[in-house]
């Protein structure tokens, strides 16, 4: 306080923040945090979509390798697969054949093909990773299609359901790829065209 000619003057300058400044700062902080949270969600979705595409390429290459090991049955691998094959009576896994077979198991080429397709379907549907009774590994609602021509040309198509609706992943593809899986805006597609001689 200052005293001038008998009058007392008060100094109105105070130090600190006003309530309005604090509220504006909080609003800016909240908007920033919402943006960071949304960015985190977008990154997780993108990561999952990428992981699903990686799995699709793995499963396509897996069945091609199985077909290479059983060339005499090549044409019989053709078809559409969505996880409905029954379990074959014989387990004809390649690991069982190392060292002349395990337990006297000898499989014909037809039995090997049946086991290959069954095991492949189970893998892409996530049977190798479960939570309770539910398969949680593999692709989300997969459908796989294999086309084999007489000259050994093989086309393997993997389709699955993506997280969000953007566009049909097979809409601009050829007729065989389009016919694999159910057409909708969440369908994703991956295909490999190769030759097995």
From TrEMBL:
<dbReference type="InterPro" id="IPR013362">
    <property type="entry name" value="Pilus_4_PilV"/>
</dbReference>
<dbReference type="InterPro" id="IPR012902">
    <property type="entry name" value="N_methyl_site"/>
</dbReference>
<feature type="transmembrane region" description="Helical">
    <location>
        <begin position="20"/>
        <end position="43"/>
    </location>
</feature>
<keyword id="KW-0472">Membrane</keyword>
<keyword id="KW-1133">Transmembrane helix</keyword>
<protein>
    <recommendedName>
        <fullName>Type IV pilus modification protein PilV</fullName>
    </recommendedName>
</protein>
<keyword id="KW-0812">Transmembrane</keyword>
<dbReference type="Pfam" id="PF07963">
    <property type="entry name" value="N_methyl"/>
</dbReference>
């Amino acid at each position: 306080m200052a005293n001038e000619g008998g009058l007392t003057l008060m100094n109105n300058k105070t130090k600190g923040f006003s309530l309005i400044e604090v509220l504006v700062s909080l609003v800016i902080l909240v908007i920033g945090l919402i943006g960071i949270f949304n960015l985190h969600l977008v990154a997780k979705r993108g990561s999952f979509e990428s992981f699903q595409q990686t799995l699709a390429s793995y499963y396509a290459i897996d069945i091609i390798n199985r077909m290479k090991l059983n060339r005499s049955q090549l044409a019989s691998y053709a078809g559409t697969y969505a996880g409905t094959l029954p379990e074959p009576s014989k387990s004809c896994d390649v690991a069982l054949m190392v060292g002349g077979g395990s337990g006297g198991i000898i499989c014909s080429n037809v039995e090997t093909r049946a086991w290959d397709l069954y095991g492949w379907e189970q893998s892409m549907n996530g049977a190798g990773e479960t939570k309770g009774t539910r398969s949680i590994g593999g692709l989300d609602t997969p459908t796989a299609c294999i086309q084999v021509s007489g000259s050994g040309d093989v086309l393997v198509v993997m389709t699955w359901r993506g997280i969000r609706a953007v566009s049909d992943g097979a809409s601009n593809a050829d007729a065989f790829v389009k016919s694999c899986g159910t057409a909708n805006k969440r369908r994703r597609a991956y295909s490999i065209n190769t030759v097995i001689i």
